[in-house]
Amino acid sequence: MASVKKFTQSAVVNMLRHNARTIENPSNEDIDADKSNLNYALSPYRGQSDYDYFMERKSQLYCYGRNDVKVMAGWIITAPKDLDKDQYETFFKLSYDFLEERYGRENVIQAVVHNDESGQPHLHFNFIPVVVDKKHGGEKICCNDVLNRKELRSFHPDLNHYLKESGVDCSIMSGITREQGGNKTVLQLKQERELEIERKIEVEHQYSRGRWQ
Q1: pLDDT tens track for 73-113
Q2: Cα 100 from Cα 94, distance rounded (Å)
């Protein structure tokens, strides 16, 4: 099961801190702090914080200056219930490899597996959505071009194929909502709760900066 979320600049730092479990009082009540030591990172170690690397990589790219520009995107990949627990690490490593190859190693900001929440373990993969900048030259940040309709439709089948070719056979479900003609599963509801927490984090961060009086 996978779902995706887009983030503005104002939400990035708190989202990265939330995933790294460095927020003192997290909004997610599902987190069991006693199990947070079971979480682990899959993104490359670069000798700096995730946010510092985000700012460094962003500085190399053309980006519109509007506050509503989505400068980071994040996939959440949840371990399927039909997958044996002894295959979890392999599943997440392969999922990471698939995502890194798809969006570029240099664009990976953070990849963390969470084992400290209720429900199934899941991978948070955050990246800068980068495309060729035909107008200005070089590369630019553009979520809409990277996460277009074609990409969202092909993502689950491509991931499923990659996993099967690598020897992991499990049910990768698409995030089809009721409005799109599907029925929500327990996993989908879990993902929606994660996304709602992320939205709350963004709102709290904007409020703390005095955006709303």
Answers
A1: 999 999 998 899 999 999 999 999 999 999 999 999 999 99
A2: 10
